[in-house]
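Exam revision sheet. Question 4 asks you to relate a sequence to its structure. Input first:
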Amino acid sequence: MRAILMILLLLLPASAFAQVYKCKGKSGETMYSEHPCDARAEPMKLREHSAPTPAMTPTVAEPSASEEPSQASERASSAAANSELEANRAAERACIASATASVYGPSNDRVSTLQQQMTLLSEQLANAPDAQRSQALRTRMATFRQGITREHANAHTQMIAARQRCLEMHRPAQTPAR
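Answer key, structure tokens:
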């Protein structure tokens, strides 16, 4: 089971857009989710890219005697483009992190409130004097469950739109192929 979970985590893209939350299921099993399990949930710390080694770091060497000036200029512009691309990716990740906090923070607060209300109803259900009262409490609990589901779906929809806006803002426009 752990091997499957590790493989799934490894398949996440290096610049994953969503946070990953580690949760305990109802029967005690460990689950991983894109959405926080409860108000106290904190995202897992996933490793980013490893630090570039000197061999991986692009450098602009002085042109050799056999190299044309245009080739040296082309290499320099390629290095500048790579640097700009990395800056855009960093800005895109920061934009997504900000959007995640602004969408999921309030959503988690609303879900937490609904979960607290469900806990109170559950306690009342345990002490319900008759079947009619029990049924009324179960109906209200079902309404709260639906509210939680809608809240998660709404937050997910908002994050899809926010990610798209971040991508559009920080990714250079593609030039049409000739």
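Marking note for examiners. The radius of gyration is 25 Å.
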